[in-house]
Amino acid sequence: MPPKRKIVDDKKKNDKNTTSTANEDVTIPKKPKGNPLVTHPSHKSRECHVLTLGQGDVGQLGLGEDIYERKRPALVPLPEAVKGKIVEAVAGGMHTVCLSSTGELFTFGCNDEGALGRDTSEEGSEFSVGKVDLSEKIVQVSCGDSHTAALTEDGRAYIWGTFRDANGPFGLTSKGMEKLPYRLPLQKTVVQISSGNDHVCMLTENGEIYSVGCGEQGQLGRIAEIFSLRGGRKGTSILLEPAFVHCRRIRGQGKVLFDNVWCTPYGTLASRRGGGVYGWGLNNYHQLGFEDTRSRFMPEQVESFSHLTVKDIRGGQHHTALLDNKGKVYTLGRTDYGRLGLGDGSKETYKPTQVLALDSEEVLSLGSGSSMSNCATKSGFLYSWGMGSNHQLGTGEEDDEVTPVKIISKQLESRKVISASGGGQHCVILACD
Backbone phi, then psi, for 356, in 5-degree steps? Predict the structure, then answer.
């Protein structure tokens, strides 16, 4: 087995009706009988096949021990019972997570820090698809560099793996790394989860956001800069226990509530109920949409997005891609390697700029890796752009692409691409017949 590769990084970085959790002496609200289970527009339901490409030297492609690289999309050999029945597939730094229409989770890839949420003591087992032992039905999943998060149908959040910062891993809980699913002690009903490299944000049914994880770049939106490095004198507990992200009240409108939250590797963006987007976290290349390059440790409204009705947001280490309600794609941030898709000569920008090469297409979903992006169109095509050094673009070459390129592959000839997700060195695609 080859040595573990590093991820490509171009710029180093009271409710009475309650029940007890299985791992903490806390209470979690129990939804009254007869109420519907949690729903959110970000939950997926279309059954698809899973394909992977790029580097797979630690098993993140799920294609077996003998395949360390794929230049073109390859079909992942899932268990027969869920083959063609995957509704969400997400790429972490060096692992992949798949969610079936029956609410089961399957993982593969690097498990050094517990990101797979299952036993991989048998040699080579991380290179093949394995099921996560969770008795509850999962409706959404997200993952980062060394962690995975899952949302149950009744609004509970589970997480496993570990969080990292500039000094290395600092644990997932006060006990350290968690190699099996751990229920987060949050007394709220969660409807949406999202992961950055080392943080997780949870949107509740009431429109509140709670965060947990690394706060070094301000990505939690609730830790003052003086306590951002492992909690300072307050300790890591303020990072590892989910807490409310507070936004200043808007005069005449009251409390700020949200309807969507999206984590980028080192930042967070959220859309406010009634309009407007708020951002916090790393902004060294204007990737949050602020004119200066100062990191935000508390939520602040992004004025440069005000002319757009944002439907979806995805981000890499130093760039961000937006999808509006008309199916048009906009990018901002750093330009290197063509990650903005704006062509040669494009400049670093805090203003969302339309990717004109996609203007003739209606885009349905966005994906992003460290230094690349991709999208799936209404016509079922996959487009990729940005850094191609690990074949994660799917062009068959390692060249960078400064504008979106349509991916041509035998495996996609008779399938429509629904979504794609980029990891550190690989990409995972969902496509239906």
Answer: -65, -25
Calpha distance 380→285 (Å, rounded): 32
Distance CA 276, CA 292 (A): 19
Tell me if 374 sits within 8 A of 418, measured CB to CB: no
Does pTM surpass 0.85?
yes
How far apart are alpha carbons 212 and 134 in whole angstroms? 21
List residues bridging with 428 in a β-sheet: 52, 421
Q: Let me know: does 332 contact 347? Beta carbons within 8 Å.
A: no
Range of the domain at 260: 45-432
CB of 149 closer than 8 Å to CB of 132: no
The span from the CA of 329 to the CA of 311, in Å, is 10
The answer to whether position 376 is within a domain reads yes
Cα–Cα dist 186/188, whole Å? 6
Rounded Cα distance between 81 and 220, Å, is 38
In a domain, 273, yes or no: yes
The answer to whether the CB of 288 falls within 8 A of the CB of 267 is: yes
Q: What is the CA radius of gyration of the chain?
A: 20
> Could you give the 3-state DSSP secondary structure of residue 343?
coil
- Rounded to whole angstroms, the Cα distance separating 364 from 367 reads 11
E strand map for 92-176: 95-100, 105-109, 130-131, 138-143, 147-152, 157-161, 163-165, 168-171
pLDDT in tens, 310-343: 999 999 999 999 999 999 999 999 999 999 999 9
Alpha-carbon span 376 to 330, nearest angstrom: 14
With beta carbons less than 8 A apart as the criterion, state whether 165 and 149 touch: no
pLDDT tens, position by position, 350-406:
999 999 999 999 999 999 999 999 999 999 999 999 999 999 999 999 999 999 999
Which residue(s) pair with 69 in the sheet? Answer: 55
CATH code (residue 387)? 2.130.10.30
Dist CA 424 CA 161 (whole Å)? 17
* Residue 26 belongs to some domain of the structure: no
Cα 353 to Cα 97, 243, 289, 312, 343: the distances in Å are: 31, 34, 11, 15, 12
